[in-house]
Specification:
Strand content: 15-25%
Low-confidence stretches: none
Structural class: alpha/beta
Order of helices and strands: EEEHEEEHHHEHEHEEHH
Number of domains: 2
Helix content: 25-40%
Number of strands: 10
Distance between the termini: 55 Å
Shape: globular
Bound molecules: adenosine-5'-triphosphate, magnesium ion
Radius of gyration: 20 Å
Number of helices: 8
CATH architecture of the largest domain: 3-Layer(aba) Sandwich
CATH topology of the largest domain: Rossmann fold
Length: 259
């Protein structure tokens, strides 16, 4: 099957330093791919190249079989959700979601109804007239997701969208993103440095280290068959630590019943 999106031999050099070393991967239509790696490994750089905000030093981006490496971002039909929401503070929820639609020739005449519909889908109808500062962080991120969905992009890219949110909100929004993906059949690329998040959400996970891909596989296969020591330590050991700390917590709670 032809890939929805392919990154081919991407190299990125900043100030004579190579930060991406011939990265190659594909994403299938409707797939949820996470890019998992520590700070500075090159995740955001890949995202910027994929959406056209940064021309790669070398390599190519192929979408539906077409080389789009030189295509401007506005023509790529991809949407991005950032960590910091990037909402217009002086506009209401409705205004934020409707904004980009008004610049789109095809969607302009239906912008209001599209926006209202999407706002309902993300559960914010009761807040439609509010400005962003009246909303919680989780609600603001829902507005950002709604704004991206309203443009009906073929591919949605998330750059650590939960990192400013508390743990409980992260869990809620995680389910929400998964539900949205199922409902809209979107192809999603999700950047995170959180192992648990990657495992909960993804069809496949791409594990990165210093501008290279260590492994790209299903969560099950990564657990069963980690490619190398790095993957074992960065992914499996970290997950195990989390699980162990949870189990400890459960034991403390049920202390009287333990032997
Ligand atoms: N515009 C730039 N100019 C120079 N160096 C850059 C630029 N953008 C990124 N870098 C460097 O490239 C490397 C990869 O950065 P990138 O932002 O892609 O990492 P990241 O995986 O997204 O990290 P984080 O998890 O902290 O967001 C880092 O060493 C960073 O300092
Ligand atoms: Mg980043």
């Amino acid at each position: 099957m032809e890939a929805k999106l392919e990154a081919r031999d991407l190299v990125q050099v900043f100030n004579k330093q190579e930060v991406l070393h011939r990265i190659g991967f594909t994403v299938q239509d409707g797939e949820f791919l996470s890019i998992l790696g520590p700070s500075g490994c090159g995740k955001t750089t890949i995202l910027r190249i994929l959406v056209g905000l940064l021309p790669p030093t070398s390599g190519a981006i192929i979408k539906d079989g077409l080389d789009i490496t030189a295509m401007p971002p506005s023509k790529r039909n991809m949407g991005i959700v950032f960590q910091n929401y990037a909402l217009f503070q002086n506009m209401t929820v409705l205004g934020n979601v409707e904004y980009a639609l008004k610049f789109n020739k095809e969607l302009r005449s239906r912008s209001r109804s599209i926006a209202e519909n999407i706002i309902e889908q993300v559960g914010l109808t009761g807040h439609i007239r509010k400005k962003p500062h009246k909303l919680s962080g989780g609600q603001q991120q829902r507005v950002a997701i709604a704004r991206t969905l309203a443009m009906n992009p073929e591919i949605i890219l998330f750059d650590e969208p939960m990192s400013a949110l508390d743990a409980a909100t992260r869990l809620l929004l995680r389910d929400e993103i998964k539900r949205i993906q199922k409902q809209f059949h979107s192809t999603m690329i999700y950047i995170t440095h959180d192992q648990e998040e990657a495992f909960a959400l993804s069809d496949r996970i791409m594990v990165m280290d210093h501008g290279t891909i260590r492994q790209i596989d299903t969560p099950e296969n990564i657990i069963r068959n980690p490619a190398d020591r790095y993957v074992r330590e960065f992914v499996i050991d970290k997950l195990r630590l989390k699980i162990n700390s949870l189990i400890k917590y459960v034991r403390v709670e049920g202390g009287q019943n333990s032997p």
